[in-house]
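Appendix C. Worked example: UPF0173 metal-dependent hydrolase IZ6_12270
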Amino acid sequence: MRITWYGHSAFKIEFDGKSILFDPFISGSGYKGGAAEVAKGTTHICLTHGHGDHVGDTVQIAKETGATVISSFEIVTWLQGQGVEKVEPMNTGGSITVDGFTVTLVQAFHSSGELVNGVFAQLGHPTGIIIEAKGQPTVYHLGDTALFGDMKLINELYKPKIGFVPIGDRFTMGARTAAYAVNNFFDFDLVVPCHYATFGLLDQSADSFRAQVTKKTEIRVPEKGVPFEV
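Step 2, the predicted output written as structure tokens:
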């Protein structure tokens, strides 16, 4: 599996001819390559929730590539209204198998919505996303979330080995609570921290998080747009 982080919560994982893009907030993330570069080869887009810094460039990328967008029913319906053609609607707790891999939406403690004609519209519930595929490590993108005890149940049920974990504080877990989750609730082989340093309101580095993770887990802080293999 090849993993690329594009800043904020935007990731791409590639395996077996699939190229799955998570939360493609590219234009505003500080990634200099641009959305058109990231779009190349994308087959699927998974969205954790409906905030603009996660939906990001989804419409552009989906139209350019014909990628299938997988997310909550409310989000994909809203995107269909903007011209996105291929969607897979889901909701929290459900799983689907599409093109040889399984997607499960699990709970996250956050919010989800966007301004539509000057009015804040609710776009379903926020989620985390689990990707399972034969012969590949299970990936869990936690989305934007607070700490919650049922993370332990998610670990027991799905046994994720790679975690994309928000650490930026204020709107999500910060270094202390994210490290607590990694130390006490999960058995990750690899953690990639995310949702930090994009804006001034967020923590600006992963140093404190790394220092507080005591479990034997690899913490990788990649450069934006530089892929690595696992």
